[in-house]
Design goal:
By secondary structure, the chain is α/β, with parallel strands linked by helices. It has helices at residues 3-22, 24-39, 53-59, 89-95, 101-106, 127-138, 149-153, 197-218, 229-232, 234-252; strands at residues 44-48, 69-72, 116-120, 142-147, 171-174, 182-184, 193-195.
């Protein structure tokens, strides 16, 4: 195995091991709060910009996920594949540091203090994500940050408060990506390659989902889960997809009353 491949695999293992040794009790706390919110008929909003969009969509909708979570992504800050030109990356990075975005976003929804927010940012410094978290707390929501504390320690907040995301949250989950995210050093190359945060953040996401599903089930309200045909057969799988989407539509309807 090449040295660079070993570097990356070792970094992944360190991150997963650190999550196991230091984050499981915090993940359980977050899951308990999220399950209580879902059982009460309210929503766990999930927000992230940039590449954190991948972690947002890992929550719902995809195989093995279920309603109760409300993913929020803004295309202007997450639609990266044009790279340059219209909808380019420069504009997205500029917009990520817009002040006052949180109040504008939340005015689109009828929220409740019984709601929760899972805010995702590896650097923790994005003004928009911090602002969304600050406004959510002002509205009474319980806010969980999913971030990299080592990255935050090396990042300067772009928010007018001077706070990074973990400082605007009630509970912080550290997915352990290194400062700068990229973790492989190639001989003769000045800068590192191969970021880690998508893997480590999605590990935390799925630990949360599994625990929330367990808590909902033992409470007598097992979730409707998007499930592949290999588990249930094509007919039952297709029917469950429709039931899950209907359940999601019913749940998010409270946001527009």
């Amino acid at each position: 195995m090449s040295t660079v491949s070993q570097q990356y695999l070792d970094a992944v293992r360190r991150a997963v091991d650190a999550i196991e040794t230091s984050q499981l009790s915090l993940i359980k706390q977050a899951a308990e709060r999220f399950a209580a919110t879902i059982l009460a008929g309210r929503l766990v909003h999930v927000f992230g910009t940039g590449h954190s969009r991948m972690a947002v969509e890992e929550v719902f909708p995809r195989y093995g996920s279920f309603p109760g979570f409300h993913p929020i992504v803004e295309l202007s800050m997450t639609y990266h594949n044009p790279v340059v030109g219209a909808n380019g990356q420069r504009q997205a990075m500029f917009l990520e540091n817009t002040q006052g975005f949180g109040e504008v976003l939340w005015r689109n929804f009828t929220t409740d203090p019984g709601d929760c927010l899972l805010a995702i940012s590896t650097s923790g410094s994005s003004a928009v994500t911090v602002d969304v978290a600050v406004e959510a707390r002002r509205r009474g929501m319980f806010v969980v940050a999913l971030t990299s504390l080592s990255n935050a320690a090396r990042s300067t907040s772009k928010h007018q408060s001077g706070h990074n995301l973990h400082e605007a949250a009630d509970l912080t989950l550290d997915h352990g990506a290194p400062a700068g995210d990229a973790c492989v050093w190639v001989e003769g190359l000045e800068t590192p390659v191969a970021p880690l945060s998508t893997i480590s953040s999605c590990v935390v996401i799925n630990l949360i989902k599994a625990e929330v599903a367990r808590l909902l089930t033992v409470s007598g309200a097992p979730p409707k889960v998007l499930t592949a045909a290999c588990h249930l057969g094509s007919e039952r799988s297709a029917r469950l997809f429709e039931e899950t989407y209907d359940d999601y539509r019913r749940r998010v309807g409270i946001l527009y009353r």
